[in-house]
Amino acid sequence: MKMMLAENIRAFRKERSLTQEQLAQALGVTAGAVYKWEAKMSIPELELIVSMADFFDTSVDVLLGYEMKDNRLEATVKRLREYRRQKDLEGLAEAEKALKKYPHSFQIVSQSAALYSAFGYDSGDKALFHRALELLEQSRLLLSQNEDPQISEQTIYGRIAQTYLGLDETDKAIELWKAHNADGVYSPRIGHILAQNDRVEEAAPFLSEALAKLLSDLVSTIIGYMNVYLKRGDHASAQAILSWGIELFQGLRKADKPNYFDKVCAVFLAALAASQFLSGKRDEARETLIKAKELAAFFDASPSYDESDIRFITRIEGASAHDDLGATAMDGVRNAVSQFDNEAFAALWREIAEEE
User: Fold this and answer.
1) Where are the domains of the chain?
2) Is 112 helix (H, G, I), strand (E, B) or coil?
3) Among 3.40.190.10, 1.10.260.40, 2.40.50.100, 3.10.20.30, what is the CATH number of 5-64?
4) Do the Cβ atoms of 87 and 94 come closer than 8 Å?
5) 344: CB partners within 8 A, 6+ apart
6) Interatomic CA distance for residues 263 and 34, integer angstroms
């Protein structure tokens, strides 16, 4: 609970242009007493607080600066989240109060754990990490209450591992991440921490898996953004994100050897050409389609779906590349052109495709 009594006594006194001595005389106390109230060195007795409220023509609540908090569960959870966002250490005391009131609430326990862990990293205070661990273990036992699809036993174990890292218990953190690394979700962290601790050979497969997954997700993300922008009629943004993706993926080639992302880039070039064509940049669209054709032919001459042909990535056991772009890169370009359902653009592609 936070009160603003000292600040309010000073504000009300100055509003009435009174000195500390004049207020003291009106209340029948010494000027030193008023000074101590305003300096937060002492608190007036309740009878004097009531007298002051009457003197200043206000209520006791207003004079105290007291605001009734909403202590219902949802409001408390939201408040704990805000303490963490604001990096306000008062949140720790608030968390402990909430834990006493709602000791078996998954939301309260989980948010309190997040608060302690965050402040542990901010301050380096190991005691905060230990408290976070206690709460994370407790939250795992209460997981059946959880309604947040982004939280699961896997993510809680991930947070426990991160907390062990804050306690400098690196091996425990790595082993816990490894044990709960479904779909490679913790591979980036495992690879990063292993490499940081001079375990580079052990780190490399995790980093390769992480990069391969990141690149696959990035392809889907770029296509998603492209569709959003095109449906909004925002061709500039569609062209910008496609161009960025093409530049990024083409930087993954090893020397002059084709890799899977050449096929992806050929399709991206076709989509970029379509956006250029539809926005009136027909000469640019023609040049981009020529590049799409050339890149597709380059890939199809020696197609590679081997992840180890991609720069930075070593062989990943059990990995394989699959897509619905088309059987070949050239098929992918044709499919991309046809999806725009524009006869003039399709005619331009047919003209370019037939050129020697």
Assistant:
1) 5-64, 73-180, 206-354
2) helix
3) 1.10.260.40
4) no
5) 277
6) 79
| pLDDT tens profile 263-277 | 999 999 999 999 999
- pLDDT digit string, tens, across residues 241-251: 999 999 999 99
**Other CB atoms closer than 10 Å to residue 278's CB: what's the count?**
18
Query: Residue 51 and residue 16: Cα distance in Å, rounded?
Result: 16
Cβ–Cβ under 8 Å, residues 259 and 304:
yes
Cα-atom radius of gyration of the chain, to the nearest Å?
32
Does the pLDDT of residue 62 top 90, yes or no?
Answer: no
pLDDT, one tens digit per residue, over 74-92 is: 999 999 999 999 999 999 9
In this chain, the answer to whether the domains covering 5-64 and 73-180 adopt an identical fold is no
- Give the tokens for residue 279: 């926005």
Tokens 């991440």, residue? Answer: 177
Secondary structure of residue 253 in the 3-state scheme: strand
pLDDT tens string 112-169: 999 999 999 999 999 999 999 999 999 999 999 999 999 999 999 999 999 999 999 9
Which residues on neighbouring strands pair with residue 233, listed in sequence order? none
Question: Is residue 234 packed enough to be buried (19+ CB in 10 Å), middle (13-18) or exposed (0-12)?
Answer: middle
- 314 vs 23, more confident: 23
pTM above 0.85, yes or no: no
Protein fold of 206-354: 1.25.40
> Would you say 287 and 293 are in contact if contact means Cβ atoms under 8 Å apart?
no
- To the question of domain 73-180 being in CATH 1.25.40.10, the answer is yes
Which amino acid is residue 128, in one-letter code? L
Residue 254's DSSP bridge partners are 257
- What beta strand segments (E) does 90-199 contain? none
